[in-house]
Design brief:
The chain is globular. By secondary structure, the chain is mainly alpha-helical. Helix 1 crosses helix 2 (about 35-70), helix 10 (about 235-255) runs antiparallel to helix 20 (about 445-465) and helix 19 (about 405-435) packs across helix 20. Helices cover about 80% and strands about 0% of the residues.
Length: about 500
């Protein structure tokens, strides 16, 4: 069993150099020739989508169903981490998990994606007429597909089981390489293969975090201009990112049980408050009816939607992009979930992440995106026109400004978005620091470095131009290719190590 209560000074310098160096190299290349970088990234994105899109769809499905099997089998009762009781309450535990992963979808995607699918019906439902009441269920259900059961299951169910087995029960470091411990054993502890595995996982999650930070600069600046008349210029965008990095760094420095937990707690409570407000004073009946019918549509068409392959271009723009993004987060989320889940059973972890979190997320998408569709049905163009002209942040503003007390509610939604990204930034800088050191309580200097580096990269990319942030978003999908190969063996390793741990615990 490893010690997590004292701060250690172990730093894997080769890993630190490779992961940090490649991010810096991306920025330098962008500064030298952004057009070339965009061209290469687009080619890499197209290649990844073409050759790995179908594999990712099967991987996500297999991961989800095997996770459910492990959770509800006799292995589900296995308690992980050598603690009789969990370290933190269930609400605080779920808050960290929810707030960390909802950054990208917290508000802007929740407002915009259902509307996009409402205006242009997904190809699987091509017989449905767009912008009509009949397009409501397919639009919401497609959003559920991208942010629901499959997305959450890859973010720390089976991978967390293997990670906790390797770290707490076999003494391996808290690094992505530990996911391969049941295959390679102790030789992974200090090996070139392990360093490469860790580096790819860190780069993938760093890219997946820098992207939302950069987009927050764009989106929050738009929101500040729309709500308060503050000019949407580069200085405003950079000031937002600097402020975000300062708060995120302070939170990461104070640790999981203080800053990160407090911010996540506050974020979830604010989201619950806004949900209740919209249900009571907004189109509450429409939201509840839409959620029940659309969720039923989602479950009924689950396999068909998960395996749809008929329109490769649409898949690359939507499903494959999201799957690449979430897969890229997989190993690092396994580390975060492992760090905060000691004393919990396999069943508790899997049900919380693969069942409860997706249901909460899909309801949140119905509250925000469903409200947008409601207002669009009442008055065509009331949301869609702003979405087409101003993008995702415009959709959020267009929706919230039609709610009662809009002058208060709209800024609160904007605040919620900012905190969502902050909670991802602090959690991921802390988690990357854990991966570099292999310990549950990494050096403060490491946490600060990764928090500042991700903010600095986002700022530089914004300075270069919006195209560079878009290039980084596409780069996420490329980095997910090696990470998806890492996550494949976890599907059969998790049941194996669960069986091993059950036998050990039954002997006691």
């Amino acid at each position: 069993m490893t010690q997590n209560n004292k701060q250690t000074s172990n730093i894997d310098w080769p890993l630190f150099g490779i992961s940090g160096g490649l991010l810096v190299a991306f920025v330098i290349a962008s500064l030298i020739d952004m057009q070339f970088v965009e061209e290469m990234v687009n080619k890499g994105f197209a290649w990844s989508s073409k050759y790995f899109g179908a594999f990712w769809q099967v991987l996500m499905l297999a991961n989800f169903f095997v996770a459910l099997y492990v959770a509800f089998s006799k292995y589900g009762k296995v308690r992980l981490g050598y603690l009789e009781k969990p370290e933190m309450s269930t609400f605080k535990w779920l808050s960290i998990i929810m707030a960390t992963l909802l950054a990208g979808g917290g508000v802007f995607w929740a407002a915009a994606e259902p509307m996009y699918h409402f205006l242009t019906v997904p190809p699987m439902n091509s017989g449905v007429e767009a912008e009509t009441a009949g397009a409501l269920m397919p639009a919401l259900a497609q959003s559920y597909m991208h942010w629901g059961f499959l997305a959450w299951a890859i973010l720390g169910t089976l991978s967390a089981v293997v990670m906790m087995y390797g770290h707490y029960h076999r003494g391996m470091p808290l690094k992505p390489r530990t996911l391969l411990y049941p295959i390679f054993g102790e030789k992974l502890r200090k090996s070139f293969l392990g360093t490469i595995v860790d580096a790819f996982a860190i780069i993938a999650v760093a890219a997946g975090t820098i992207g939302p930070i950069g987009f927050l600069g764009l989106q929050a600046a738009y929101g500040l201009q729309a709500l308060f008349g503050i000019p949407d210029v580069l200085i405003t965008r950079l000031a937002i990112i600097i402020g975000l990095v300062v708060v995120s760094t302070i939170s990461a420095v104070t640790g999981l049980h203080k800053g990160i937990q407090w911010l996540s707690n506050f974020n979830v409570r604010l989201a619950i408050g806004l949900i209740l407000f919209v249900l009571v004073f907004g189109p509450g009946g429409f939201i509840l009816n839409s959620f029940i019918s659309s969720f039923g549509f989602y479950v009924d068409n689950f396999i068909q939607m998960s395996t749809f392959r008929a329109d490769k271009s649409w898949l690359g723009f939507w499903t494959v992009f999201f799957w690449g993004w979430f897969i890229g987060y997989g190993p690092m989320m396994a580390i975060l979930v492992s760090r905060i889940s000691r004393g919990r059973s396999i069943r508790q972890i899997i049900v919380a992440i693969a069942v409860i979190a997706p249901i909460v997320t899909t309801f949140w998408f119905t509250v925000v995106g469903g409200s947008g569709i409601f207002y669009e049905l009442q008055e065509a163009g009331s949301v869609s026109t702003q979405l087409e002209n101003g993008g995702m942040p415009a959709a959020m503003i267009a929706i919230t400004e039609q709610l009662p007390l809009a002058s208060i509610i709209s800024p609160l939604f904007l605040l919620l978005t900012i905190i969502f990204v902050i909670t991802t930034g602090d959690s991921m800088s802390y988690t990357i620091a854990m991966a570099v050191s292999g310990e549950g309580n990494p050096k403060i200097s490491l946490r600060i470095f990764w928090s500042v580096l991700m903010g600095a990269v986002a700022s530089i990319l914004l300075y270069i131009g919006e195209g560079s942030v878009n290039a980084l978003q596409s780069f996420i999908v490329i980095t997910a290719v090696p990470v998806s190969i890492l996550l494949l063996p976890v599907i059969w390793l998790a049941p194996r190590v669960s069986k091993e741990l059950l036998l050990e615990q039954n002997k006691k």
